[in-house]
Amino acid sequence: MNEAGLAESLIRTFSPSGRESGATAVLVSAFESLGYDEAYLDEAGNAVGVLRGGAGPTLMLNGHLDTVPLGDEKEWSYPPLSGAIADGRIWGRGACDMKSAVACMTFAALDARERGFIGTLVVAGAVLEEVGGLGSYHLAETLRPDIVVLGEPSNLSLKLGHRGRVELHGIVPGCMAHAAKAELGENALNRAAAFLSRLEGLVLPEGGPLKRSTATPTYLVSHPKGGTNVVPGSADLIIDYRNVPGDEPEDILRRIQALDPGIRWTIPDSELITENGEIRIRRGEIVGPYLTPGASRAVERSREIICSSLVKNNLPYKEGVWWFATDAPQLARFGAPVIGFGPGEEELAHTTRESIPLEHLPIAREVYADLICGLLVGP
Ligand SMILES: [Zn+2]
Fold first, then answer.
1. Ligand 1 centroid to 246 CA: how many Å?
2. Distance from Cα 129 to the centre of ligand 1, integer Å
3. Mutual orientation of helices 360-375 and 100-115 as an angle, nearest 10°?
4. Residues 156, 255 within the same domain
5. Ligand 1 center to residue 200 CA distance, Å?
6. 20 to 30 A from 127, CA-CA: which of 37, 178, 257, 260?
7. Cβ neighbours of residue 265 under 8 Å, at least 6 residues apart?
């Protein structure tokens, strides 16, 4: 088996968030059959493979095995759980986001062992990334890596961070009335409309390479539900807020609240539970922004390594930030720099066109092996 074969097996194993055990079992058995020094499921259900190369730092190659839902299966050119190979691509849910990257990492670790490295190498297939990152939160806490390589799709370029996400729920007040005598009530939808036009004009903070925070309304429902001849007495409004570093949740709430003091805003809580039920935490719908310290030694070294790997393959070197949130802030909790690099085009993640160019796979495998050998060089 090679990285494409493992990617296909992982794609064929349905693993939406919270139901990853089929895919984590496939990965652990691959670690075992490929001769990893250790292969196990941790308490959160993450698949962990370890290769030991003596005393030295710990490098974690991390990718998540959970996926978003399949969507309408009729819209897919090839069935979403087929792992079909056609048109020079592997197709299916998780092909690009991000089972193929995990497969490339799994084989890159073996290549690196053959070439030699000094330290400990961990390949982790994480759970629950799409719903808050409990899997990687646990991996960071238990394994304390010194450096992390995160394989979210980057079209074979270096990524050094992304904006955070804060979900804001507002209750828009109103007063019910007969729609034919609307002046007797107060229309919650009209109030929401006035709020939304003020929101659109709001100038939000800037944050260097991560550009600017944004506030996007994503949901508006009036009450009573189905009351189509009634002036709505209230409405629920949700904003998807993407924040740059320094734009903190308290400041965001205050700023949004000031646009209409009558609308009550909160950041909702949700409970994250692992499939085995062993770990549960309750926390706000917040993913922090993340920016890898650009001047750190690990980043400088990774830049050189990725650049020379790509040049060998006649590909240009590019560097930037992801436009979506990842597990990077969870993985960096104890100070490890997170180096982003993955096969696949970001725009295909979460779509019914999800697929990955086959030609990206051996290149990603080679870059990962070069990163391992170049970063794990002893104490
Ligand atoms: Zn992803």
1. 24
2. 7
3. 50
4. no
5. 29
6. 37
7. 168, 169, 170, 253, 256, 257
Distance from the CA of 17 to the center of ligand 1, in angstroms?
11
**Judgement on whether residues 295 and 341 belong to the same structural domain of the protein:** yes
Ligand 1 centroid, distance to 178 Cα (angstroms): 47
Centroid of ligand 1 to alpha carbon of 326 (angstroms): 6
Residues with CB under 5 A from ligand 1 (ion): 97-98, 152
Rounded to an integer, what distance in angstroms lies between the CA atom of residue 369 and that of residue 75?
36
pLDDT reading at 29 higher than 90: yes
> At residue 295, does pLDDT exceed 80?
no
Give the containing element (helix H, strand E) for 223: strand 214-223
Tell me how far the alpha carbon of residue 64 lies from the centroid of ligand 1, in angstroms. Answer: 7
User: Residue 378 — very low, low, confident or very high, per pLDDT cuts 50/70/90?
Assistant: confident
Are both 181 and 236 inside the same structural domain? yes
* pTM (2 d.p.): 0.93
Ligand 1 mean position to 97 CA, how many Å?
A: 5
Distance CA 79, CA 74 (A): 8
Same domain, 200 and 335: no
CATH (domain of 198) = 3.30.70.360
Range of the domain at 335: 3-162+289-375
CA of 201 to the centre of ligand 1 (A): 31
Return the higher-pLDDT residue of 66 and 271.
66
Query: Last residue of some domain: 273, 301, 326?
Result: 273
Looking at residue 5, its pLDDT comes to 97
Dist. CA 325 → ligand 1 center (Å): 8
